[in-house]
Amino acid sequence: MVVSTGTAPEVWKDASVSAEDRVEALMARMSLPEKVAQLYGVWVGIDNSDGEMAPHQHEFTALPVAWDELVKDGMGQLTRPFGTAPVDVVRGAATLANAQRSIMAAGRWGIPAVVHEEILTGLAAWKAGVYPSPLCWGAGFDPDLVERMGAQIGATMRRLGVHQGLAPVVDVTRDLRWGRVEETIGEDPVLVGMIGAAYVRGLQSAGVVATLKHFVGYSASRGGRNLAPVSAGRREIADVLLPPFEMALQAGAGSVMNSYADIDGTPVAADPGLLTDLLRETYGFTGTVVADYFSVAFLQTLHNVAGSPAEAAGLALTAGIDVELPTVNCYGPPLVEAVERGEVDAALVDRALRRVLLQKCRLGLLDEGWSPEPPVLDEAGDVVLDDAAVRSLAGELARRSIVLLSNTGTLPLAAGLRLAVVGPRAHTPQAMMGCYSFPMHVGVHHPDAGLGIEVPTLVDALRADPAGYDVRYEQGVPVLGGDDDGIAAAVAAAADADVCVAVLGDQAGLFGRGTSGEGCDATSLRLPGRQEELLEAVLATGTPVVLVLLVGRPYELGRQIDRLAAVVCGFFPGEEGAAALADVLSGRADPAGRLPVGFPADGGNQPSTYLAAPLGRRSEVSNVDPTPLFAFGHGLSYTPITWTGVAGDASGTWPTDGTFDVRVTLHNGAPGPVSEVVQVYLHDPVAEVARPVQSLLSAHRVDLAPGETREVTISLHADQTSYTGASWRRQVDPGEVELRVGASSADIRETITVSMTGPRRHVGFDRVMQATVTST
C-alpha cells in the first residue's frame, strides 16, 4: 500500500507527466557516474541459505569494488537472480526485494534496477515449467499457441519481479552443424518471423520486455562454429537474416541483443551501421539494445579491435549498445574516465541513458511509491510455478510439434504389443529439454537439488499407457561412448519384441558438455557417438523399428530410412514431451508437426537449406546432390486431409501494390480430428538477381473436425514478393510469378501462374510481411 504524503512528487516520479519529460527532468540532475551506473548490469546469485545477493563466479564477473560502493550511484540491471542457482522462489523473491531496496536507498534518486532472466523455454528458474524448445514452436506452425505460451511466461516473470526476458531467438537456421540450431525456430525467415512475433506479443502482453536475439548474422557463422566470423553477403543478410527481426520489431519488441560475431571483419557490437543506422534510423526502434553477455569486453579480448576496456566501451557505446551485460567490465569506471578525458562523447552516454530510463519509466520503475515487493510475496499457501495450466499448455504445444517423418504402417502402435524400447534418450528426463532450460543450463551443476519439476521419460509414459504395452527397456549405449555389451542387450530385447522403439538423439549442454547447445557444434551430422551402430544392430534383428528422435538438430538418416518402419521427430518437446509422444505413437493424437528445418540426405552437404537459388540445388554441373531426405514443411498424418480444390483470383493478375487471394478447400473424411498446414511458396522465374527457387509466403494451420469441409482464403500482399535488387533497395517487380500451394516445400498440390501488373515499387520496413487468412 502506498501512503500519500500530501506533497506532489518530483516531476520525474509523476506518472501524470509524459515519460519523455520525466526522463529529461531526471537526467538534468544526474552526475556522470550516476548516468553511467544505469548502463550496466551486475550478475548476482541468490544464496539460498542466508538470502544475500552474491556475484556469480566467472572470470569476467568479479566486482570492481564492494557491493555498497558499487550501488552508491545506482544500477541499471540485475542479472539472473533466479536463474543462476536453484533457489526457493519465495526466499528468492524476498531477497530480490531486499536488493532492490538496497539499490534504491544507496543512490540519490532511488531508481530500482531492471531484473532480467533467460526465458527461452520458460522462465529459467528452479521449479518453473519447461516448455518445448523453439524448433518445436516452428514445427507447430501455430503462432496463436506460441502467443499463449509467451503470455504465460510473461505472467510468471511479473509474479517474481522480473522485468525483461532474453528471448525470442529469431536467428534463421543456416548450417545444421551449429550447436545453437536447437534455439532457432527454423530455416525460413517468414516462419521464424511469424512465430517470433507471436512470442513477443504474448510475452509483452504481461507488461514485461522481450529481447530479440541475436542481431544480426550470428546463425550464419562460418563452418557452423559458435562465434565464428560471418561471411554472409548484404543480400543474404537483408533477405534472409533480417526479416524475422523486422517482423518481431513490428510486433513491438522492446529490446534487442547484439550478435557476438563479426561480419566481414566488423564485430556487430562495434558496428553503428547495424545498431544505429539500420536499427534506429531505418527501423525506428526506440527500445534498448543490450549486450550479449561479455560482448563489450570481447571487443578487446576476442576480436582485438580495442586495446583497453575503455576503448571497448567507446566502440560499443558509439555503435549503439545501451546496456552492458551481464555485469560491469567496461561501462563502469573505464567509461567514466574515458568521458572525463574527452575520449568518449558525453552525448553518447546521454543517448543510451535516455533509452534506459524511458524503458524503466514505462515499466513503472520511476513512479512515486513503486514497490520492490514481487507479487508472489502476497500469495497465500504454497507457491507453484509449474501448475496445471502451465503443463496443459506445454503438452498442447508438444503434441502440435511432433513430426511423423515416415511410416510404413507400423504406427500407430496396436494395443498390447511387446515393445523393446532402446536407446540413450528413452529413459532420461534430460532428453526432453534444451540447453537453455533451467535443469540443463543450471541444474546440471547442482545435482543434489533435483530437477525441481516432474519430467517423465518416454519409457515411463509407455509403461503407463492405457494401450497396455509390455515394455522392456535397454539403453544400448549412452549418447556418447558405450560398449558392445550394451548393444548386445538392446539387440536381445529387440529380437524378442513385436516392435522396437529406438529413442536416439542429443544431450543438450553448453560449451562441449553436450552434443547440442551453445558451443556444442558438430563436425558431422551422423547421430552422435555409437547411436547409428546401435540403430543398425536392432534393424538387423528383423523386428520392425520405429525411430524416435529427441534432437537439437536434424541428422542424416539416408542409410537407414528404407529399413525403418517409421520415424518420429520430437526435437526437445519439454516437460510434457513424453506424454505427447505416447499419444502420437499410440494413435490417440494424430501427428500434427511439420518440419521447420529439412533433414539432409547426406550431412556432408552442409551448409544447405531449401532457400537455394537454382545452382544451389541439384544440377548437372556438380555430382553432389543437396536434395533433402525430408524437406522443409514436411510432416505426415495417420489420416491425411483431402485437398478438394486450390484456386486463385480469376483475373490472374496481381497489382504490384495490391493483394492476390488464394483459396484452398480441405475435407476431413476421417473419424477423428486432423490438422493440415497450408503452405504457399513463391517462385519468381525471372528476377534482377539470383533468387531462391521458392520461398515461403504464408503458412496457415487448419484444424478440421470429423467430416468437416473448410475453405481457407489466403490474401497475399505484393510486398511479400519483394527482394533486394541490384540497387540494394527492396523492390516489388512486375512480371510473371508462380504461387506454389501445397503441404510442404516438396509436396506442391497446385501451381498458380500470376501476372504482377503495374510499376516496380520500392518498399521498406513498413511493408506488409504477413498474409491475411480467413476461413469458412
UniProtKB/TrEMBL annotation:
<dbReference type="Pfam" id="PF01915">
    <property type="entry name" value="Glyco_hydro_3_C"/>
</dbReference>
<dbReference type="InterPro" id="IPR036881">
    <property type="entry name" value="Glyco_hydro_3_C_sf"/>
</dbReference>
<dbReference type="InterPro" id="IPR002772">
    <property type="entry name" value="Glyco_hydro_3_C"/>
</dbReference>
<dbReference type="Pfam" id="PF00933">
    <property type="entry name" value="Glyco_hydro_3"/>
</dbReference>
<protein>
    <submittedName>
        <fullName>Glycoside hydrolase family 3 N-terminal domain-containing protein</fullName>
    </submittedName>
</protein>
<dbReference type="InterPro" id="IPR036962">
    <property type="entry name" value="Glyco_hydro_3_N_sf"/>
</dbReference>
<comment type="similarity">
    <text>Belongs to the glycosyl hydrolase 3 family.</text>
</comment>
<dbReference type="GO" id="GO:0016787">
    <property type="term" value="F:hydrolase activity"/>
</dbReference>
<dbReference type="InterPro" id="IPR026891">
    <property type="entry name" value="Fn3-like"/>
</dbReference>
<dbReference type="Pfam" id="PF14310">
    <property type="entry name" value="Fn3-like"/>
</dbReference>
<dbReference type="InterPro" id="IPR050288">
    <property type="entry name" value="Cellulose_deg_GH3"/>
</dbReference>
<keyword id="KW-0378">Hydrolase</keyword>
<dbReference type="InterPro" id="IPR017853">
    <property type="entry name" value="GH"/>
</dbReference>
<dbReference type="InterPro" id="IPR013783">
    <property type="entry name" value="Ig-like_fold"/>
</dbReference>
<feature type="domain" description="Fibronectin type III-like">
    <location>
        <begin position="676"/>
        <end position="745"/>
    </location>
</feature>
<dbReference type="InterPro" id="IPR001764">
    <property type="entry name" value="Glyco_hydro_3_N"/>
</dbReference>
